[in-house]
């Protein structure tokens, strides 16, 4: 069995023991992960005191909820580092939220903020050597990325920024941030394929927009709403599920590459005392209420009477302490019971009287509040009714307009026709533009033929121009050199009409060359 696999099973056994409150197992697990987890946390927060606080919080959660932790899927080491990263990144995000403004990074991340290899610590010798080797491999893979790609991995994984936050903070286009992140993750997976599993043959040929998010999802670089949407997408896309497993195995290697920092002096004793000290206090409290030899609960250990001792027991203990016979103890017991009952009845009456007074006051206040609330609700209801009436009128108007759009043209009158002529010597295209008017507005019909051959993703786009300002009048594709376009618009005069070749069919402004044109002036 390999060292890694052996350590995995040992961790599982230790967590199972911790789940049943085995302190020795907890100490062994702590000694195994103290150094690498602390170094990883420090790598994120850059603060020794805060790193120790987060380490204590993480091991405290593990101690108090090990039964649930033991039932999770995945290797214990990966889940431990995942929990450490979550807590550390949460601290960074809270720190940034409290700040009144963003502070730009210094930009000196090449050696200071980029991961370095992990050094020896409290890990076992074989596991330490393996982790050092993995750290060297991960650092080597990171060094092979471009400077910009390393920055994105640094900001997203080690500092907890989202792509939108990076774009806003560093004035980088959001698409560029996401593109660099995706490429970085893909390249890291290729460089670390022997550690994270083979690279799938179906890794980069996806065109679906949702599928393109798989790399950033694995790196924890999506906004919350994007995570929810992609999680649903995973239920529908087997390709992304398989690819995500490979990417996650690679991302889980990143904690192995962290700055070499010394452990704070005395951290082990402080942390174990903080986590296990509560357990020891709980055991001491339980021991203080142990049953005496006679089978009754007593309070001698704490110097006070336990709340589980009855009045009859008290009387017997008092008689025994004064050397009185058992018969006297029985009489004392009866008196104690009667006195206790009388005291309870008096307390009950006082509580009942106070409750009645409070109920009366509450009823009066409730009546006043109810009246105020009723007036407010009536006002809001009247406003809501007016809004509904207005909305109904708007809907009726919109429905009438929608029906009119679906009706055929009535009494359409042609107001202008113009011949389209080519603007380039290399084409022989020809066409005609017709503008008609009816009750719905103005309509433009463009018909062309002998159009030039364009690339598959390109499109022809029609523009109406007034004072050199173009208005988008639609796009079209040609078939056998012929094409047409139809556009309805508010009555307005234009100077000319042009057709351009655009790189796609979604442009709002002209980007390509003008190939045909026609004047619309008298």
From TrEMBL:
RNA polymerase sigma-70 region domain ranges (all copies):
29-93, 141-190
Q: Which Pfam families match?
A: RskA_C (PF10099), Sigma70_r2 (PF04542), Sigma70_r4 (PF04545)
Query: Which portions of the sequence form the region Disordered?
Result: 287-306
GO MF term set: DNA binding; sigma factor activity
TM spans, by residue? 347-368
Q: List each copy of the Anti-sigma K factor RskA C-terminal domain by range.
A: 352-514
Give the UniProt keywords, A-Z.
DNA-binding, Membrane, Sigma factor, Transcription, Transcription regulation, Transmembrane, Transmembrane helix
A single Gene Ontology CC annotation of this entry is: plasma membrane
Write down the SUPFAM superfamilies for this protein, in alphabetical order: Sigma2 domain of RNA polymerase sigma factors (SSF88946), Sigma3 and sigma4 domains of RNA polymerase sigma factors (SSF88659)
Tell me which domain of life the UniProt entry assigns to the organism this sequence originates from: Bacteria
BP GO terms, sorted: DNA-templated transcription initiation
Task: From the UniProt record, list the coiled-coil ranges.
Answer: none
What the record says about family reads: Belongs to the sigma-70 factor family. ECF subfamily.
Which protein are we looking at?
Sigma-70 family RNA polymerase sigma factor
